[in-house]
Description:
- The protein is α/β, with parallel strands linked by helices.
- The chain is built from 21 helices and 21 strands.
- Strands 1, 2, 3, 4, 5 and 6 form a 6-stranded parallel sheet that branches.
- Strand 10 (282-285) and strand 11 (289-292) form a beta hairpin.
- Helix 18 runs parallel beside helix 20 (543-559) and helix 20 (543-559) crosses helix 21.
- The chain is globular, with a radius of gyration of 25 Å.
- The two termini are 46 Å apart.
- The model is unreliable at 32-39 and 190-207 (pLDDT under 50).
- It binds flavin-adenine dinucleotide (FAD), NADP nicotinamide-adenine-dinucleotide phosphate and flavin mononucleotide.
- Flavin-adenine dinucleotide binds next to strand 12, strand 13, strand 14 and helix 14.
Amino acid sequence: MSSAPYIPDNAPFTPAQRAWLNGFLAGMWSQAPAQPATAVASRDVAVLYASQTGTSERLAKKIAKELKLKGHTARVASLEGYEPVALAKEECALILASTYGEGDPPDAARPFFDRLCNPAAPRLEKLSYSVLALGDKHYEHFCKFGVDLDERLSALGATRMAAAVTCDVDVDEPFEAWKADLLARLAQSSSSNGTAPASAAKEAAPVAASTYHRDNPFLAELKEKRVLTQDVSSKLTLHMGFSLEGSDLSYDAGDALGVIAKNDPALVADILQCAGLSGDEKVELPKTGPRSILDALSQDLQITRLSRKLVDGFAKAGNVSVLLGLLVPEQQTHLDRYMYDRGVIDLLTEYPGVIAGAQQLVDLLPKLAPRLYSISSSPKAHAGEVHATVAVVRYRSHNRERGGVCSTMFADRTEIGARLPVYIQQNKKFRLPADTNAPVIMIGPGTGIAPFRGFLHERCAVGAKGRNWLFFGERSSATDYLYREELERMSACGVLTRLDTAFSRDQAHKIYVQDRMIEFGAELYAWLQQGASVYVCGDASRMAKDVDLALHKVIEKHGGRDEEGAKEYVQDLHDSKRYHRDVY
Ligand SMILES: Cc1cc2nc3c(=O)[nH]c(=O)nc-3n(C[C@H](O)[C@H](O)[C@H](O)COP(=O)(O)OP(=O)(O)OC[C@H]3O[C@@H](n4cnc5c(N)ncnc54)[C@H](O)[C@@H]3O)c2cc1C
Ligand SMILES: NC(=O)c1ccc[n+]([C@@H]2O[C@H](COP(=O)([O-])OP(=O)(O)OC[C@H]3O[C@@H](n4cnc5c(N)ncnc54)[C@H](OP(=O)(O)O)[C@@H]3O)[C@@H](O)[C@H]2O)c1
Ligand SMILES: Cc1cc2nc3c(=O)[nH]c(=O)nc-3n(C[C@H](O)[C@H](O)[C@H](O)COP(=O)(O)O)c2cc1C
């Protein structure tokens, strides 16, 4: 079959529109009567991904599978440990890159990108490529890493096969369009020599595929629900234990549990009422097909948060001048402030009459994404079970009590015996050292303790001899000391070699985990010198950065190094896979 037509790059469309149109043409073409046979154009394609929570990895595997079905050679690899010199030997690469931090690469891809940005990076004249940039419009630096990567590759002489496409959390549609566009372009281009370059990216290790995954979650029974904080605490943190019995799901300590959440029925009812809808109106959703607006708002759509796209669609639909004013680029800060503590319900109450029908409302709303929780159990110690440690998000704003979708579903609407749709999200970069004698240092304030509870149970279950040091922090020791008895037991029996706590609100001035790291810096540095691996889990916005800074300071002070020397030391920790972060 000859190849599909596609929209040229100089046609007056945005990259996303062009990708969509090319995808559409490719779809039409594939349904057209067979064309006279010509030689199948086969290309050797490196499918590379930079992922933290697995989305771009999942999509990379998906596109690789389709490339193979079309007769191409496709090799999937993470950018973790990948070298620019290997890229320079490639002729064709499709790169899926998600953004973290302040527009940064995922931790695992940082060394690759640093090397690529080095003036000594190799030229990439041989390479044709395209980038799918994954991100979330709630963040200030939307898809920045993917966009920066795209620009850097071009600056190094590589040729764009198609402009970078950015995706919001609702990745499926832009991904399908990008994929169809690239498949059409690859079919157009003639075969290369077809042999893999010497430094070919290694195929990712095959993962034992489970019947259950994000698109086909397992209904896991809730067996245990325990409040970890005391009644008088200023927060509510829960321990949730699910049974995996009846499924073929398995996990390793360090993986995450994906949960398909449902919205609060009371909020859904308020939204329907404000929009003048009964709930029975039929609506169409991509993929799910026709359903009632009640079901769509309950299960499929994100209703608690606002995004620029949503405000833009709403403002244009109702010609709302106040909102249109906030949408001009100079007003970004004011728009952010407006969106920060409001949801769809606020748009509907502040500007009544804009929504004229159920489908119009549905078309404005993004898909409700699954929520991830670092698993707090070990499969070796808790066979057939998976545990999560959940901080419940509640706050009041604009005269409304509000809550996080999934965490309040756990707190308020899920009782023992309930079955919830879950799946396992692998997190291969967050694993205990293979050498069970190696020491580990774990830094996990708040719910950041979750994977470390799993790690400690795992080390205990396998009889690991390596020393374990945990830094834990919370607001108050009397009310928020998560898993206190368990940790104390582990200390008493010697599994937990050291336990240092930082209760931020037990004294007039704040004490955080990083203050303890500094306080015990000499010992911390000694552990590092003895080969300890460092793990950090919890809040990404401030904690992870402050802990990273403290680690540098400890190395400067106790390792007798200057700032540059400490950076190199930490880079070596990264490179030797002894510094791992799981932050959110
Ligand atoms: C890899 C990974 C691991 C994770 N592990 C854990 C874990 O072990 N335990 C855990 O509890 N969470 C964990 N999380 C976070 C978790 O996935 C959810 O994001 C969290 O539970 C909130 O989800 P929700 O649906 O309850 O809230 P959402 O409906 O997503 O609402 C949260 C949003 O509400 C808004 N908001 C919250 N507080 C306020 C406020 N005071 N004022 C205004 N707006 C506010 C913010 O926009 C915030 O983004 C992890 C996340 C990732 C990516
Ligand atoms: N909306 C909400 O109601 C709400 C409530 C809690 C958490 N969250 C969010 O939920 C996520 C997880 O929360 P969590 O329950 O695991 O706990 P957390 O909010 O991360 O707090 C755990 C401990 O970390 C301390 N902390 C605050 N800033 C820090 C920093 N820069 N460095 C080190 N420690 C710091 C906190 O102290 P202090 O709090 O005393 O400063 C507290 O003692 C976080 O992303 C957080 O932003 C939201
Ligand atoms: C802690 C955290 C920080 C993030 N920071 C950004 C950001 O700065 N810009 C952005 O566009 N997306 C950001 N995102 C969204 C992710 O890039 C997006 O969810 C992506 O689909 C994740 O892909 P992955 O699963 O392959 O890691 C962030 C997500 C998390 C959890």
